[in-house]
Structures are given as C-alpha cells and as structure tokens.
Amino acid sequence: MVESSRSPALVPRRIASTIVEAMAEARVVALLGPRQAGKSTLAWMLAAGPLPAEYITLDDERARALAAEDPQGFIDGFGRRTVIDEIQRVPELLLAIKARVDRDWSPGQFLITGSANLRRLPTVADALPGRVDYLTMWPFTQGEIAEEGDGFLDRLFAGELPTSRATPAGRGEYAEIMLAGGYPEAYRRSPSARRRFFESYVDSIIDRDIPETSRVHDPASLGSLLRLLAARSGSLVRYDALARESGLDGKTVKSHIAVLERLFLVRVRRPWHVNLSPRQVKTPKLYLTDPGMLAALLGANTRRVSRDDAFAGAIFETFVATELERQVSFARDPLSLWHFRQEEREVDVIAERASGEIVGIEVKAGSTVRPRDFKGLAHLRDRIGARLLAGVVLYAGEQALPFGERLWALPLNSLWTSGPE
To answer: What pLDDT does 228 receive?
Structure first.
C-alpha cells in the first residue's frame, strides 16, 4: 500500500495555493466537498497562517444556535476576514454574507466550507451569484499520500509523456491502494476498521446531512440506493433498471441520485457530444466518489480485486475517474470531464479544456494491452484530428508502449508518479 509517514493533518493539500489565489480576487470563496475530506483541517490551517482569519465552525452547537437566531447580526459581528466551516448547517447565513459583501467589495472577506453543494441546496438556491468562487476539495490524491507529483493531466496537455517509476505489474499489486481510497481517516486503517468507518460515515450523512439539506421523506432509501449504485459504479445510468431493483419509481431514483451527488457521494459524468454519429450514446455514467467507499459498501477485499474480473474493471475505472477528478480541482487550466460511447467504441474519461483540445483516457484492469483496447481512442483521433492531444490506456502493466500516433499504453501509477517530485 502507498502510505505516507506523515499525520493526515500534515499532508500538504495541492488545492491550498488555489484557495489563497482565489481569496486575493473574490469577495467570498466557497470550499465544498465531502465530509471527512479534510476541508475543516485545511481551512483552520489557512486561517492560522497564510490567510489570517477568525475561524468559526457551525458543528459547534452554540455557534450554530447564535447564527440561526440572528444571521445578519452574527455576520456583522466579524472583522475583516472570517472562515465559516460547514455553512450548510445554517444556510440563512449565505443571505447575510451577501448583504455584507454587497456593502464592501473588498476581496477575501469570507472563506466558507460546506459538505453539500451550496449551488444546489433547495433552501438557498445559490444565494451568492457573482460574489463567490466555488472550489471543490476531494479526499487525498495518491500523489498527496505518496508525496509524488500528480502531474498526469498537466503533462498530457503540455504534449509530454507521463513516466512512472518502480512500476508494479498485475492488478493485485494495486488492490490495497484502491481499497484504501483517499479519506484521511480511512486510508491508513486495517480493512475491517476501514469498513466500519465507511458504514458509520454513510449512516451519519443519511441521519443528519440529508434531512438538513434535502426534502427527502425517506432518507433510509438513499442509503439502500447508494449501495445499489456501488455495485454499478462506472456503468451507464439506467434509471428504469435502478427503479425496478430498488423498488422506487424512476422519478424518485433520479431525484435521489441528485441528492447523493449534492452530498459528494456520487458523481454523474455526462457524455461528450461531438455529433460524430446519431448512434452516439447520450446516457450519463455514474461513479462513487471514492474507491475505498465503493469497496467497503460491497464488502470487497484484495482477493476479489485479483479474481473477479467484473469487479476489478469497475474499481479500476472508479479509481482512475476519481483520481482525475481530484487532479482537475488544482490543474493549471480549467478542465471538464466527460465520457464517450458510440456503439462498441468507448472512452472512459475525456478531459477537455476551454480551448477545445481533449485528452482521452481508457482504463484496463489487466497487465497486457491490445490494439482493440484503443478502438474508441483511435476513432476519436481519426474523426477530430489534432483536437485529441493524446489518447492513453492506463493498465496494470510495467511498460509505456506506443500504439500509434498520439496513442500510448501507460502503467496505472503514471497517474501519480508523473510530474515534479
């Protein structure tokens, strides 16, 4: 298992510099992401150092009661810069912050954190349009854990070939890394203790966060749906099939998935539309947001990764998709992530920058790669030409291998061992 000897609280987070830069320009910066990803720790450390500020957490019952009783007075009582942690617990504060920053346009007044997507909360419906920069902070990347580079996408977009060092071979060599995931509290634990963590984690979100942030009559049904989605991570979202298996109607399934995405438990990856063919699949894909959570919810162990081909494919793809999502949060250029499928041709992840160039990534759990594994990538290259800067198949083998113009097979650990050390 890749592991750092440092305390999780001391692992440098690559998004920290992005937060500091945003606070120099925006009146309010919202740092959003799943619970237990390290947002509170990072916000506290920034308030104690690079961004000197008063720090308030609304997980504190007394602070929460004061804020709920008089939101405007609570906000007006603070000085120049304030960090407010877990603001979704008193969403009325957002309107009070709006009134405050409308009177004073100075940048860097508030850093707020939230474990729910504030832009999608039905109680506030994005109360700060034009006044806030939204950033997303995920659990640790493998590069943060292993003190490596995390430069995979940046290098591909720069026209460089990511390289890896001390490359293991075989999917069993990556099993424990995937099962550990990236949650600071979980990745160091033993398998049984990690499973207990994720079970308690999901239960606490269902018991507390869903009632606070959503209009759901039966929160327990979301827990059941989440476990069903775990078994289909990396698959196309078929709402009718999910409805049949969950015993819910299709409309409820769709709204429940929206709630789970709002709480950063799942991610829905939209299809990339390029009008290549009327047969292009326009159905989204869905992933759990951490492979460790996926494995814990399914009770999977390293043996299952090694022996169960279907599960290995799902967790490998989930691992890559979530690692790339985490790297995008602090990439040099803004990037959007998609998927592509047309008949038998598919590309698991497409990263696109604003100028239109893309990088395609396909994931294979095996230790060998064949030309047919590049079918989707080669199709895109031939149809869109130079817009495809690189097509990569990440696999559990040892060597970087060329498979044609701008097409490469790369070892899986190129994801986090490429770039500056």
So the answer is: 96
